[in-house]
Write a structure and sequence with these properties.
This protein is an alpha/beta fold. The protein has helices at 20-38, 54-62, 67-84, 98-113, 171-180, 188-199, 228-238, 248-252, 265-278, 311-318, 320-330, 341-370, 382-403, 407-428, 438-459, 464-476, 495-502; strands at residues 4-9, 42-49, 91-94, 117-127, 132-134, 140-141, 147-148, 156-165, 185-186, 205-206, 208-209, 225-226, 257-261, 287-290, 293-294, 337-338. It has two domains: 4-290, Rossmann fold, CATH 3.40.50.620; 341-496, Isoleucyl-tRNA Synthetase, Domain 1. It is built from 17 helices and 16 strands. Helix 4 crosses helix 7 (228-238), helix 5 (171-180) runs antiparallel to helix 6 and helix 14 (407-428) packs antiparallel against helix 15. It starts with a strand and ends with a helix.
Length: 503
């Protein structure tokens, strides 16, 4: 049986339509899942929407909408984003689903049975936008001495009866986890951040609310709903059948990786493993916190700043695979990065259109024109063997880098192999051999077509539709049949013409 691989994205909060940050995370998770499938793993990718919490209630109320009706509509936008960006998820979990309520109640009862829940009164600062509690010492000063969360979001003083989770009990077990499993939190900068937070001491965590009723009801405690992060984190187990512990849950849990944004690392690397320890359930193998995509001015995307970018519009403007390639090529995964229309066009033209696309197009065109579309055998001259070795080395490096989510480094190795192929074409000049040495021309083109196939298969997790289109052309000629007339994979982008058309 194939080795299982289970990956999750963060469960998106749908109080607004998806932005480029949601697209970035979904594309990265999809690339990881596709890569692992290509390695023979039995992969499951789970995503979804986190629909509970005060923020959803307030947003729906502000629009004069029923909260569930609003959640239905907004969750649909995230499904649409996945479909548009070619995200091949296996399950989409909504926190409003009955199956998820069952999972949340099960983990709550397990934590209660462990003696880790008690009823008391909470008074302190709460950020509705973050759905997070903050100590006085964590707050920062805004304009006019306004108190803000560390994320720069407004906070309000909250006082209500609440259930508490004994988070303080788990400080030492968590620190032991981080020390004994340095790969549990990646990248290292996020691990260091989490360790400093836990070493500073943990206070018990408020895990229920009574000021609204939109959420999972706390079993046996009328008027209380679970703190949104208790049930949001539990979606990762809902997606593999929890609370049933047999079947899929036993074969897929724990998750191999939770892919999240760096702003929610505390919930995933502190609260979540503590909940699981309490419930005596296995911990995920890794939490990977990627960075932010910043606007051209270096600002984080924010609705309040008015700089949120619609990923659908970018995909429509530049193409889905171009957007996927750019985001994973341009930014070192795990760090912050910026983007602009100019950067997308420059990268797409230089690497996809002029380099890989041109390599595939001219190789296939020469075969179609000079060999009747019949794919030739690869050559065995020293320069042919050398090229194959260079392509193989590039793909080996890509594979190693993709295993550790270093997409940009992997694509750099892949691009160096593409450059080697183009240099080989220029050195061999197959177009000049049709009359003087047709056998050598065929050998050169056969060597190139083998390289193009290997390169397309290697990059398929990043640009799946384009790779599939190219491989379909090559597969048409596997049985000796002529390949169809090739068409360019990546037409050059013209930013000025595109902007004039948009205007």
């Amino acid at each position: 049986m194939a080795e299982p691989f289970y990956i999750t994205t963060a469960i998106s909060y749908p109080n607004g339509p998806p932005h480029i940050g949601h697209a970035y995370e979904a594309i990265a998770a999809d690339a990881i899942a596709r890569f692992q499938r290509s390695r023979g793993r039995d992969v499951k990718l789970v995503t979804g929407t986190d629909e509970h919490g005060l923020k959803m209630v307030q947003t729906a109320r502000g629009e004069g909408r029923d909260t569930l009706e609003f959640a239905d509509e907004m969750s649909g936008h995230f499904r649409d984003m996945c479909a548009r960006l070619n995200i091949a998820y296996d399950d989409f979990v909504r926190t409003s689903e009955p199956r998820h309520h069952d999972a949340s109640i099960a983990i709550w009862k397990a934590m209660e049975a462990a003696g880790d829940l008690y009823l008391d009164r909470y008074e302190g600062w709460y950020s509705v936008r973050d759905e997070a509690f903050y100590d006085e010492g964590e707050l920062v000063a805004g304009e006019g001495e306004e108190r803000l969360s560390p994320q720069g979001t407004p906070v309000e003083w909250t006082a209500e009866e609440t259930w508490f989770f004994r988070l303080s009990r788990y400080a030492e077990p968590l620190l032991a986890l981080y020390r004994d499993n340095p790969e549990f939190i990646r990248p290292e900068s996020r691990r260091n951040e989490v360790m400093r937070f836990v070493e500073g001491g943990l206070k018990d965590l408020s895990v229920s609310r009574t000021s609204f009723d939109w959420g999972v009801p706390v079993p046996g405690s009328p008027g209380h709903v679970m703190y949104v992060w208790v049930d949001a984190l539990t979606t990762y187990m809902t997606g593999v059948g929890y609370p049933q512990k047999e079947g899929e849950f036993s074969s897929r849990w724990p998750a191999d990786v939770h892919l999240i944004g760096k702003d929610i690392v505390r919930f995933h690397a502190v609260y979540w493993p503590a909940f699981l320890m309490s419930a005596q359930l296995p911990l995920p193998r890794q939490v990977f916190a990627h960075g932010f995509l910043l606007s051209r001015g270096g600002e984080k995307m924010s609705k309040s700043l008015g700089n949120v970018v619609d990923p659908m519009a970018l995909a429509e403007r530049f193409g889905v695979d171009v957007l996927r390639y750019f985001l994973l090529r341009e930014v070192t995964f795990g760090q912050d990065g910026s983007y602009s229309a100019e950067a997308i066009v420059a990268r797409a033209n230089a690497e996809l259109a002029n380099s890989f696309g041109n390599l595939a197009q001219r190789t296939l065109s020469m075969i179609h024109k000079n060999l009747g579309g019949i794919l030739p055998m690869a050559g065995e001259a020293p320069e042919d063997i050398e090229l194959r070795a260079r392509v193989t080395d590039g793909i080996v490096t890509l594979t190693a880098e993709f295993e550790r989510f270093a997409f940009s480094a992997g694509l750099e190795a892949w691009m160096q192999a593409v450059f080697a192929c183009n240099a080989y074409v220029d050195a061999q000049t197959p177009w000049a051999m049709r009359k003087t040495d047709p056998a050598r021309m065929a050998a050169v083109l056969g060597t190139l077509i083998g390289a193009v196939r290997a390169l397309a298969e290697a990059v398929a997790p990043i640009i799946p539709a384009s790779a599939e289109k190219l491989l379909a052309v090559l597969d048409a000629g596997r049985d000796g049949s002529p390949i169809p007339q090739p068409t360019p994979l990546f037409p050059r982008l013209d930013l000025e013409a595109d902007e004039e058309a948009a205007a």
